[in-house]
Amino acid sequence: MQSPRHLVSIDDLSLDEIRSLFEHADHFAADPRGFADTCRGMITASLFYEASTRTRLSFESAMLRLGGGILTAAEMRTSSASKGESLADTVRVVGGGYADAIVLRHSSEGAAQLASEFSPVPVINAGDGAHEHPTQTLCDLYNLHVERGHIDGLEVVLAGDLKYSRTVHSFAYALARFNANIICVPQPGFEMPKYVLQRLSDEFGVEPLRADVRKLGDLAGSSDAVYLTPQKPHQLSLFTDLSDWQVQSVDAVYMTRPQTERFGEGDLSDTQYMRLEKRSMDADSLRDAVVMHPLPRRDEIDSDIDNDPRSIYFKQAARGVPIRMALLATLLGKIQLAGKPPKVQRQVWPVVAGSNPCPNPSCISRTEPRHVTPKFTLRSRTPLVAHCAYCSRELVFRFVGCSTSKHYHAPDSRELQKVLPDHLVFLPDEGSAQALAYSKAHA
Amino acid sequence: MQSPRHLVSIDDLSLDEIRSLFEHADHFAADPRGFADTCRGMITASLFYEASTRTRLSFESAMLRLGGGILTAAEMRTSSASKGESLADTVRVVGGGYADAIVLRHSSEGAAQLASEFSPVPVINAGDGAHEHPTQTLCDLYNLHVERGHIDGLEVVLAGDLKYSRTVHSFAYALARFNANIICVPQPGFEMPKYVLQRLSDEFGVEPLRADVRKLGDLAGSSDAVYLTPQKPHQLSLFTDLSDWQVQSVDAVYMTRPQTERFGEGDLSDTQYMRLEKRSMDADSLRDAVVMHPLPRRDEIDSDIDNDPRSIYFKQAARGVPIRMALLATLLGKIQLAGKPPKVQRQVWPVVAGSNPCPNPSCISRTEPRHVTPKFTLRSRTPLVAHCAYCSRELVFRFVGCSTSKHYHAPDSRELQKVLPDHLVFLPDEGSAQALAYSKAHA
Amino acid sequence: MQSPRHLVSIDDLSLDEIRSLFEHADHFAADPRGFADTCRGMITASLFYEASTRTRLSFESAMLRLGGGILTAAEMRTSSASKGESLADTVRVVGGGYADAIVLRHSSEGAAQLASEFSPVPVINAGDGAHEHPTQTLCDLYNLHVERGHIDGLEVVLAGDLKYSRTVHSFAYALARFNANIICVPQPGFEMPKYVLQRLSDEFGVEPLRADVRKLGDLAGSSDAVYLTPQKPHQLSLFTDLSDWQVQSVDAVYMTRPQTERFGEGDLSDTQYMRLEKRSMDADSLRDAVVMHPLPRRDEIDSDIDNDPRSIYFKQAARGVPIRMALLATLLGKIQLAGKPPKVQRQVWPVVAGSNPCPNPSCISRTEPRHVTPKFTLRSRTPLVAHCAYCSRELVFRFVGCSTSKHYHAPDSRELQKVLPDHLVFLPDEGSAQALAYSKAHA
């Protein structure tokens, strides 16, 4: 049996495929009730280990619009899971005969990756903890496509909680991939984390510039804005002398709510959070900007702009249905995307010995009691840098062993280049090395 | 975009329209599986902020019988709401693209009215706290129509908890509107409230008479019965000398359960409640009476009459499906009702200043933290009497201000007739008037 | 109205009917998406008074594959039930017009029997407490049919918790009925209960032999195995001299999880439980054995055999869909089974006086507050042995009265043979006899 295609990460789709999804979504949106035979006889199962009614209803609406059937398990946490069943077993059963695709929501990072390793049918990640939510990103991109006709070169403001919002990080990577420019306008104290900036730079060549945001007027507030541009270096060099990039005209403002559920001590209270109001939108640079929000909103967008034609956040949510229709129809084999899948498939290896080197306590490799083997991806060989294959967090270790030679090395040792990835063992300290009977390499 | 038609209150439908719904329901009931293409491709969403499985399943069955799809959110209280989303936002999202109609159940009075102000698709009130439940009333009326062929002039006993039962109040208004007569047989201490009698008199010209209920036999028990008749005054005058209206023959007995969840201290215990038994139905006057109950029942109807052909309460529930099919097909634009909509549309104004004058703590204008402006309707200009536009409760205030003149008046002041409704401000006392910088009018 | 056909117990189906269901299931399995018009326009309602997501999804998938609609009440316990509605009323309403069949899951034994007495539409027992779960048994049998082509004469190992597992008891009765042989390999301390062995002997003539399980190798472990064979006595006599029956070749190993939720004090901890591993399957006698498990599993089957072609537990779950399709299509009148229904219908009588003689505290006759009359079946007249008609538990009483003579007798009295079953009264002691004004018979 050929392994089915999944959507665990937005990176599982190439740019051409995403553009093709947009085209199909356009067709679905033009006649939402005209495709009620597309997936007739097929079934999706919503397996939601945490409640997310909006996301669930959006997927289920998409499937119903395609004429398919839906199975709903809105409260997985309190049902099978309580009998101690592993996620691997659940998806093998549900995907084995009950449903033709699984829409999975889980509170642990990497859950969708794990599910995709075992499921006989396509798994769609509908949010795995703080990790990924690729259909939200697809929906956000699709909205830019509908409103602007293209994404390349757009100027997009990301505003609010840029620190804890999973949505905004994924959106930033995707914008960079599509060659759009980003103006970060964070709530002070909630700046974009370094590891996000690092990945933007490493993977997409994005350069941060200090931004002059006076033209954003009220919106910028006291924020220390940053301009992120994936332009090629030789283009950037034209501005080398500019310490500030002047924001002239914005295409979209993407506002996010404070992720108070993830706030730590010392983080601000809800009421001090920035607020987009009628007068904020008076700024010249925002004349043609659409206002987006992944919803639910609280008070960060004032209702006084709900009727402003630039406010598209309700349309934005509505467009989640046609883009999910396009995705479901694709994964269920009912439409064929133009464009090829991503060329580079990431390589994953299991951790063959020692304890789980993933430091993330809510990674599925830690929260799932059964049928999970820690796995990793390699980012660099010298020094050896590896990430958890589930939650993408960088692994923590002081030494690296080889399971055949039983020797261990410092991560920057050149000897490690000779060790096959299948033989790498991550050791937190010398004690654990000795416990596994590894000895120090004399190199 | 034209505003869609909603069903917030039974008053949103004219008598002719209700009769037309009955005719359509008759067709659906005659062949429940013969209309599976009527709403093909359309979707309803059940947004239930409190559990009511029977009501939900009845609507969902109706939609499935019409060939439509259903989205279910049976536990809204514990999902999106917990992320602080407003009802207004939720219905804009769900109605914006997920579903073609919203079936809303909520614990706050006025929730359906609020939802209808924001939803781009029809909202059906499936119960808003103690306020309205119009499809229950439609179902009750439809049962009389099926069993008796007409409603006009019927003699209907309302028995049990006439104080707290929302269902029985709505049914009483509707019976009066259809020109039926009502015999109130309350559990002692649970008489029909004055405000209900007042509305019956004000809106439908219903006159209460002391009733001679000896012919009801056992059913009447120790109850102090009241006869409510919407007959025209000149007809009533024929009986002016009669202190008691003698009940001869009853068409229907509508029994209600004790609403113990709303009982206050001092209200009776469950076990003392009246009970309809086999022998109760031996009374001559009840020979042809059908026994109705909105269900669920507890002990107020003994199971020894479950098999009596006059007991129609299970049929009554079953008929909720065809009448809801008729309603859904209407609001989704699939059938056209004979008859015109109600002529008088009630006028609603926002409260422009001051605190919320609605005294009802469970009104949606108080329980909903976002996107709600208190609104009111006017019942009388002199003295000024206003009701909350959401929960219909009479507003509480000692003075009324004018937002342009900044003067305030006593509610019975003739000056108030000159103030436009858009400028009315309801003031609980002089202190609040002063706080808003209003001064006493010299009139 | 003719009473519909229900599936309360696996005994409600004759062997011929079960074989016919298998044939239909084979057709459905061969083309799962080719029957989407079979039940078009029909609706099933999942009424789940306790969560069982897998079972629910399996039924709902089956109905969707047949083109029908599904109503879901996954949390009945917390909804209508909380308003005090009886199960009898709920099924009369849901079966009265909402749905064309009811799939019922309940925590009380006998709930499905009760529901079937009141429901106007077919009731399918999807598990009633520790009592029955006939579609699980059907699914298990169907798997043997698919894997082996027949059931008669198969050698089936039942392993693990044979004491508390409802599934394994039902499966054992069914195997005996189909004339298969059973090798019990219990976790020590969790042997098959005597009442199960008794019923196997009484109803199916099954004889237990001490089994020589050395050929089972690792699987047998320290278990004291028993061989159960429904062979005719004259065949058995051939082996009379053999104290041990030697197990040669096994067709299926049916492993069960420890039912820890029913463990009492002194029962072992989860971790001491037996475990089926790769090496366990090396035994010669297991070369062709399929490994089955009703799922969910915990650790009793090691994941190292998940990919062994003999491990069919995920296929086994998947096959629950086509067999349930066959059952639903049958009960909804869409297919006609070859073969006649069971000849003997069990006779049931109500308990006409005295307290409920059923000793089972979780029997529906005890947990359901309304609309239930204790009922019994007779197993023997002298001595008088009776079982609860709901939960099948043997009734507890010291004397038996006659409701017409007002006399009471010892259970082994020959006088009782003259008492009509409708007049039997079960008396726990003399005190209760006197309280009911019964006097001792002088016989």
Give short descriptive properties of this protein.
12 helices; SH3 type barrels; 18% strand; Rossmann fold; 7-stranded mixed sheet; 443 residues; alpha/beta; homotrimer
Brief overview:
Three copies of one chain form a homotrimer. Chain A has helices spanning 15-30, 53-65, 87-98, 111-118, 134-148, 166-177, 194-204, 233-236, 313-318, 320-331, 364-367, 430-435, and strands at 43-48, 69-73, 101-106, 123-128, 155-160, 181-186, 207-212, 226-229, 244-246, 252-255, 290-292, 349-350, 375-380, 385-388, 399-402, 407-409, 424-427, 439-440.
Describe this structure in words.
Three copies of one chain form a homotrimer. With 443 residues, chain A is of the alpha/beta class. The first copy, chain A, folds into three domains: 10-134 and 320-331, Aspartate/ornithine carbamoyltransferase (Rossmann fold), CATH 3.40.50; 155-250 and 252-287, Rossmann fold, CATH 3.40.50; 349-440, Roll (SH3 type barrels). Chain A is built from twelve helices and 18 strands. In chain A, the strands form four sheets. Chain A has a seven-stranded mixed β-sheet with strand order 9-7-8-6-5-10-11. Chain A has a four-stranded parallel β-sheet with strand order 2-1-3-4, sandwiched between helices. A four-stranded mixed β-sheet of chain A has the order 17-15-16-18. In chain A, helix 2 (53-65) links the parallel strand 1 (43-48) and strand 2. In chain A, helix 1 crosses helix 10, helix 5 packs across helix 6 (166-177) and helix 6 (166-177) packs parallel to helix 7. Residues 237-242 of chain A have low confidence and may be disordered. The A-B interface holds A 32-34, 36, 51-54, 57-58, 60-61, 64-65, 67, 72, 74-75, 295-299, 303, 314-315, 317-321 and B 40-43, 45, 69, 71-76, 78-80, 82-85, 89, 92-94, 96-99, 370-371.
